[in-house]
Every structure is written in structure tokens, then in C-alpha cells.
Amino acid sequence: MNNFDLVGELECVWEIQATCGEGPVWIESEQSLYFVDIDGQKLHCFREENSSSQSWPLEEKTGWILPRRNKSGFAAGCETGMFFLDPNSGKSEFAMVPDPDEKENRFNDAKCDIRGRIWAGRSHDPESQATGWLYRIDPDLSFTMWDGPYICPNGPAISLDDKTLYHVDTFGSTVWAFDKDSTGTLTNRREFVQLDQEEEGFPDGLTVDIENRVWLAHWGGARVTCFSPDGKRIGRIDLPVPQVTSCAFGGQDLSTLYITTAARNLDMNEYPMAGALFRVPTKTAGAASPSFDG
Questions:
Q1: Domain count of the chain?
Q2: What is the CATH number of the domain that holds 87?
Q3: Is residue 78 part of a domain?
Q4: Catalytic, out of 204, 230, 238, 293
Q5: What pTM value is reported for the model?
Q6: Is 125 a catalytic residue?
Q7: Domain of 92?
Q8: What is the side-by-side strand order in the sheet with 21-27?
Q9: What angle do CA 68, 72, 73 make, to 5 degrees?
């Protein structure tokens, strides 16, 4: 099903060999894609116009960065909590942590909704205990728990109309869908997709396009699958690496799908492009990330 009619040819744009590339986010004002290497403790930026790149060291494992509204830098989800980070100055300011007693948890993945709230999962880093939850972080830095517990909560993704939130239970091989209202309340939890681990790997990061199709990265499955709004498999993009971690739309018209991957515990002779950043043109589009209002 590779190169189904919604996509063109896959291209590797940066052979960076990230140990665990994750959290791609398109920053429209810069026409750039930012992503992190969780294990390698790096923040990376790929500038589409001239294919230039830049990287910054991070003080601890960081699962995501999201832009801030009317403020410089990013909100960053790290091992010990959320920080406000300015990569250019190197300044980092602690903001909050929702689970201070869970010393083995870290932020894993997150998205911002159009009302400036962050939806973020905390994951058990040794990946052996179900201590992780999906949290909503409001602009005043208060938080609420919404879904869990899981070993590794992943995703999430929010439809462009802000009415559906998708949340991933990676070890349970399940993508859940929720109705989401304007107040940030989730209801009607239901199974959206269940993966066959042996055939398809584990569900990881995902994004949603303008037709409410869901694009899901498969850790251990060497692919991104496109699902219809009712959970049917439309087609897939095969990648030359097994650990596909996440994806996000970017480019001038937001029709390019960028895909992050990981090289964790892989033989680089067997998978020389593991950890690279890929992209593929599509016949659809997504949206640039909304900004955190805090």
C-alpha cells in the first residue's frame, strides 16, 4: 500500500541518527520543523527553505516542545517537569510538574489545542509500571488528569475543529478517541484503532489532517498508516527503518508530512537511516501547532 494516492515519494532530509527522534512540531513563522531526541537530549531544527539545520543540547530527557503565544521560546516537557525554554539564550525556567511523587516518570508526548491548553502524557521511563496519565495543563499552570494509568501514554493529537482528541496506549496497542468540548472536557472514550503488534508494531505519535484522517507512526512497524475518521486503514507509507516515532504536517502549504524515527538499540549497519528525519508530499494538509497561552 506504499505510495497510495494521497502521498508522493518518501525522502530522507536529515540523516541525523537520533537515538529517539520525537515530537515534531512545525513552526509556521520560521517555516521550520523542530523535534527532539529524547535519549540523546538534543533539540533539533530543520529549516525547509534552505535545508539547513541546527541543534541544541538539553539538560535532561525531553519529550516535546511547543510554542508559546506572545512569548519567546517554548514550553518543554522534560523528565522532571515542564520548563520554559529559550534555546538561543540557553535559559530554562521550571514551570510545573503534575506528578512529583512519581520519580521514574517523564513527559513523553504532547499537543496544544486551539484554546492554548497543553495535553501531555507522563510515561514510566523504565517502561515497567502503569504510572502514566494524560494531563491537561492550563495557561495558569493548573492541571487535571484525564486518561490512564498507562505504562507509556503517547500521541496525543487533536482534530482541527478541536472536537476530537486521540490518545495512544502504546503498550496496549490501542488508539483511543474522545469527544472534546470547548471547556477542555473529554467524554465518550472509545477505541479508534487496535494494532496487531506482531504485524504492525506499536502505536506511537500521530497527527490529524484537514479531512479528519489520522496519520499514525508505528514503532517496530516501519510505517505510517493513514486511517479514515472511522478507523479504517486507507493506506500506508513504508519506511526503511523499523522505529517510526511520530509525524507532523509542515511546509508552505502544510501539505508535507514530516516523519521522525529512532535508532535505539538498532544495528546501524543493518539500518543506516535509523533516527533520520523523513518527509513525503501529500494531497492533503494539516495545521501548524497552536501555541500555549501560558
A1: 1
A2: 2.120.10.30
A3: yes
A4: 204
A5: 0.97
A6: no
A7: 11-281
A8: 21-27, 32-37, 42-47, 52-57
A9: 75
